[in-house]
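Exam revision sheet. Question 4 asks you to relate a sequence to its structure. Input first:
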Amino acid sequence: MPKRRQKKYFTTLPDDPQPIVHEVQHRLAFSEVDALAIGWHGHYPEFFEMAHTELMRKIGLTYDLYRENGIGAPIVQLHADYFAPLILDEIFTIRAELVWSDGARINVNYEIIKENGQLAGTGYTVQMLFDAYNHTPFVTTPPLVESVWQRWKNGEFLEKQN
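Answer key, structure tokens:
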């Protein structure tokens, strides 16, 4: 059987800061499975969001701060690849990895890892940043995000990896 895509979705340049990573664990609930007690594929974006929310909280880019600063950050791309099923009551890890971008966007890779270490799925999201008041895209990175990017460039988040 040919090997399916199991690599990162975004490319990085040698001078880019290292990705910022955060992991969360989750137990697959009854409400998240199909009739075969296998994790329903439609819940994977929710799993991605669990790790994404904690990653953004870790670096100081919460939805409350976006709102306070007049920033919208809608997801404009979402992709998921499935490799192995999650089973009812299984505890699994969701890994979110913020990948550097010079643009007014947020790129995040995801991995879903089963209890036995097997890769259950991967994916990515892209969020485009826009002015929440007039709904125009930012041409440059807004100050709130730029301040986080500067902290990232300075290596502030590397020692906080989990």
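Marking note for examiners. The first strand starts at residue 20 and ends at 27.
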